[in-house]
Amino acid sequence: MDAQTRVEIQNLTEQQQMYVIQTLPAKEKTVSTAYIFWVLFGAHYFYLNRPFKNLILWVLSYIYIGFIWWFYDLFRMQRLVAECNREIARQVIHDAILLYPKPQKLHSETIDAEYKEAG
């Protein structure tokens, strides 16, 4: 979990925070697994939720450009995984907000508060 995600979690309600903390680790991707997909199948983009990119990589491999791209990904795998995990965190936070909306004041509570202030 990166620093930006931690800051966003602090702005959530307690229920929303618990949902994110429980759900996020199960959905996050790991660098080691991404490397395994990179080595064995050249399918690391499938693992990182980018299937179209992986198909383009495979097509370009027939004219050898894909192999250069594939090798370049070896050095940027940590960044690719971090970007993927950031998108996953955004989605989980969004889901938490939808599942557990913040309670809103009822109209009568607002009127009561204004009446007490005026009185």
Note poorly predicted spans: none
> On the 0-100 scale, what is the average pLDDT?
88
Helix content: over 70%
Series of H and E elements = HHHHHHH
Could you tell me the strand content as a percent range? under 5%
Domain module count: 1
Distinct helical segment count: 7
Largest sheet, described in full? none
Detail the topology: elements first, then pairings:
Layout: H1 3-10, H2 14-27, H3 31-40, H4 44-47, H5 51-61, H6 65-99, H7 107-118
Helix pairs in contact: 2-6, 3-6, 5-6
Structure description:
With 119 residues, the chain is mainly alpha-helical. It is built from 7 helices and no strands. Helix 3 (31-40) packs antiparallel against helix 6 and helix 5 runs antiparallel to helix 6. The radius of gyration is 22 Å and the shape is elongated. The mean pLDDT is 88.
Short descriptors:
79% helix; mainly alpha
In short:
The chain is mostly helical and 119 residues long. It contains 7 helices and no strands. Helix content is 79%, strand content 0%.
